[in-house]
Amino acid sequence: MLFTTNGILLTRENINAILSYKGDLPFIGISLNACSAGTYRKIMGVDAFDAVVSNVKHITAALSKQGRKTRVSISMIVMKENLDELPLLPDLVHGTGAASVSVRAAEFTSSYTKDWFSSDEQNIRLDEKLLRAFERYVGEVEGRCAALGIEAICKEGHSVMFSGMCNELFDFLGIRNDGETFACCSGAFIPMGNLRDCADFWALWNSEKRQHMRTCIVNGDIPPECRHELCPYWRTRKNIDGFDAKSYRCSFQLLDTDAGISDAGLSVTGEAAISLRGRVTNSGNKTWSNTGLDRAHFFRIGGHILGTPRGAVLKELRGDMKADVHPGETIDFDLSVDVSGLGHGTYYLKLDMVQERMFWFEDRWSSPLILKLRLS
Ligand code: SF4
User: Fold this and answer.
1) Is the CB of 182 under 6 A from ligand 1?
2) pTM to 2 decimals?
């Protein structure tokens, strides 16, 4: 059994439970993603850096006491916020007793707001200078790890890491808390059935679909289900180094609203919500699916309310589309804009398309519609 965790719940009690497992436990991976408490809090959203480091020390000591050969590995997914801490990783890991470090740059596919990135500015892949610094630091990490006798798994990047063939279908199954399972951790969220519907785990693990996909892989092909921008192997195969700048374009038109409307924008007096009716055109070259795979990556009308045109987001908005929208097509939509609790003043309403769990179109070089919003 391979075991991956953020380490927060690796308490003594849980460590004992893990140690009581009688089967093979060759690997425990712990996502740390920072080398200081402040950066950890910023990235992971909780104040648990010291606790995780201490938990790692406990588990490595307990495994060694039990004579287990389990390899404990600490991973760091690198983005702008933690890039400069990367060279500190080997010594930190050495101090915990872990045997290996794993480093790679965060993928632009990870998420778009609440997970890795809140904006593309954090993505080192999109910044030549940051990417070069990352490569330099990776070299330093490998050198220091060699000196400390720690394994370094840093061979990363599309050209190296994904140039071979995917083995996730053979050794990985993503299981969500509702029992839904997914083929891999690429972010493509290829649904593989629900555990609750299966009497036997092995039936699902070796399902016809999975076996068919495995056969494709063994034959050197990428399974049709996987031919998706989110699959790093497919991206590499197709030499897609990022998203095509023309793929995700939209243009908005405001049709009607119950707010007062003038050249200066919208004005509302004492309302908790504004109703908007608008029209959006798909001026890119991708179809916007309003359902998507397992509703994981579907497209929606979105928006932000900001204090200044490029200021902090005060509210985030969503509106469903009634149908898929193909390139060149236009669709009308209704959007309720919640302005409750904002107080009197001038704000900015930014309307944009969003692909859930991925990105706002603005982050893919599309121009949102920005309206001044006056609340009194
Ligand atoms: S989507 Fe890519 S990473 Fe996932 S199983 Fe398919 S080939 Fe492998």
Assistant:
1) no
2) 0.50
Start-to-end Cα distance in the chain: 60
Closest residue by CA, ligand 1 atom 6: 226
* Mutational test site, ligand 1, from 166, 227, 240, max ligand atoms within 8 Å of CB: 166
Distance, in Å, from the CA atom of 185 to the CA atom of 1, rounded to the nearest integer, reads 17
Residue type present at position 209? K
Query: Does residue 184 line the site of ligand 1, with CB under 6 A?
Result: yes
Place of tokens 């994981």: 296
Residues 322 and 312: their CA atoms lie apart, in Å, by 30
Question: Can you tell me which residue has the tokens 């045109």?
Answer: 309
**Cα 217 to the chain's mean position, in Å?**
25
- The residues of the chain scoring below 50 in pLDDT are 109-115, 156-163, 241-242
**Ligand 1 center from residue 232 Cα (angstroms):** 7
User: Which among 162, 168, 181, 225 is the best mutation to test ligand 1's pocket, defined by most ligand atoms within 8 Å of the CB?
Assistant: 168
Tokens of 220: 């050197």
The per-residue pLDDT for range 53-107, each reduced to its tens digit, is 999 999 999 999 999 889 999 999 898 889 999 999 999 999 999 999 999 877 6
Residue that has been written with the tokens 């910023």 in this structure:
42
Q: How far apart are CA 84 and CA 110, in angstroms?
A: 20
In the chain, the amino acid numbered 157 is: G
Question: Residues 6 or more apart from 24 whose CB is under 8 A from it?
Answer: 1
Helix, strand, coil abundance in the chain, percent, nearest 5: 30, 30, 40
Amino acid at 239: N
